[in-house]
Design goal:
The protein is of the alpha/beta class. It contains twelve helices and twelve strands. The chain has a seven-stranded mixed beta sheet with strand order 1-7-6-5-4-2-3, sandwiched between helices. The protein has a five-stranded mixed beta sheet with strand order 8-9-12-11-10. The longest helix has 21 residues. The relative contact order is 0.13.
């Protein structure tokens, strides 16, 4: 199906033909833990729902199609997907990590997996010479986000993949911030794509989930074994919620991007704002690369208001439409303070973020209403 249809069509149809048993147009929620066997080992392809479930199969097939991947695996959360992928790395091996990633990802690397003998170091993935120097003979995996959480830095997926492959390492791209609508890392040379489906893919802040997509058949076999052996799988209802969200992914992303572009421009012109991070702004250091690598610039914007942390705290509590909350990618707009929320767990590490930073997940409401909300909060935040 991947070869036949365009992205928007795949979001609605890939892996989701009308149910052959009943004709139901929507994929059924197979709310079952187990499946009957007509003789020992004789069944219709499913034995037990940790191993496989038809609603999960539909989601895995659809996500693989959207990333242009041969294989897709769904997990109970983005962190579960990341943890499972990292089990491909053996004790003694090294993982090179971008110097700006989700705080929970770095916490897993630094405070859980290090204890199992993996080593991690960080590098600015936008600096290819630094990446080249940081690769070691024992580097097994390069881990990057682009755009990054929370600074929206952009990395050249094709160039980093080439460097990593020259050193015998594979590349995993966490594509949560962009979504496959904006960029498809496997086509650019990455080996694995990871998602928190909690975010743009689900799109409605009503489910937690994760996924790994790859063309590497050997790795997929191992990951599928791990998915079943470790067991961090999503339930059928959660798979169905992500499938339903996916159907409007393209429409939502178009509006997220259009709204974010207007908000970034508004903030860049605002006298109370010190700096704005958004790859869609022509002055942003990642702009040229993002324009080449992505279809549009995404729905995430971060900025620092004049006055630092005290003002940031007033602004994030001063909006009415933007809800003060962790997470992102839902239809509703969210605002947060990374230093004390999503990135609090890395406060004492190399990834610590500026306490003045404010992060926006721009929703699909009317841009004028969102701008008025921010204008009011920035007025309230201004030091007397
Ligand atoms: O929350 P979970 O579904 O387990 O996904 C973790 C995760 C992975 N990768 C990225 C880029 C993420 O942003 C996240 C989760 N992030 C938030 C909850 C947040 O507010 O940034």
């Amino acid at each position: 199906m991947e070869d036949e249809y365009r992205f928007e069509t795949l979001t609605i149809h890939a892996g989701q033909p009308p149910d052959p048993a009943t004709g139901a147009v929507m994929t059924p929620i197979y709310q079952t833990s187990t499946y009957v066997q007509t003789d020992v080992g004789v069944h219709k392809g499913y034995e037990y729902s940790r191993t496989g479930n038809p609603t999960r199969t539909a989601l895995e097939t659809c996500l693989a199609a959207l990333e242009g991947a041969d294989f897709g695996l769904a997990f109970a959360s983005g962190m579960a997907a990341i943890d499972t992928l990292l089990r491909l790395v053996s004790p003694g091996q090294h993982v090179l990590v971008g110097d700006d990633v989700y705080g929970g990802t770095y916490r897993l690397f630094d405070r859980v997996l290090r204890d199992y003998g993996l080593s991690f170091s960080t590098v600015d993935m936008a600096d290819l010479e630094a990446v080249s120097r940081a690769l070691r003979p024992e580097t097994r995996l390069v881990w990057l986000e682009t755009p990054t959480n929370p600074l929206l830095k952009v990395a050249d997926i094709a160039a980093v993949s080439e460097l990593a492959h020259d050193h015998g390492a594979q590349v995993a791209v966490d594509n949560t911030f962009a979504s496959p609508f904006l960029q498809q890392p496997l086509a650019l040379g990455a080996d694995f794509v990871v998602h928190s489906t909690t975010k743009y893919l689900g799109g409605h802040s009503d489910v937690v989930g994760g996924a790994i997509l790859t063309d590497d058949g050997d790795a997929c076999q191992r990951l599928k074994f791990l998915q079943n052996a470790v067991g961090a799988v999503p339930g059928p209802m959660d798979c169905w919620l992500v499938l339903r969200g996916l159907k409007t992914l393209a429409l939502r992303m178009e509006r997220h991007c259009a709204n974010a572009r207007r908000i970034a421009a508004f903030l860049a012109d605002h006298p109370a704002v010190e700096r704005v991070h958004y790859p869609g702004l022509p002055a942003d250091p990642g702009h040229a690369l993002a324009a080449r690598q992505m279809r549009d610039f995404g729905g995430m914007v971060s900025f620092v208001a004049k006055g630092g942390e005290a003002v940031a705290r007033r602004v994030v509590t001063g909006t009415r439409l933007f809800a003060l909350a962790e997470s992102l990618g839902g239809v509703e707009s969210l605002i947060e303070h990374p230093a004390s929320m999503t990135h609090a767990s890395v406060a004492d590490s190399a990834l610590a973020v500026d306490p003045g930073l404010i992060r926006l997940s721009v929703g699909v409401e009317h841009a004028d209403d969102l701008i008025a909300d921010l204008a009011r909060a920035l007025g309230r935040g201004a030091p007397e």
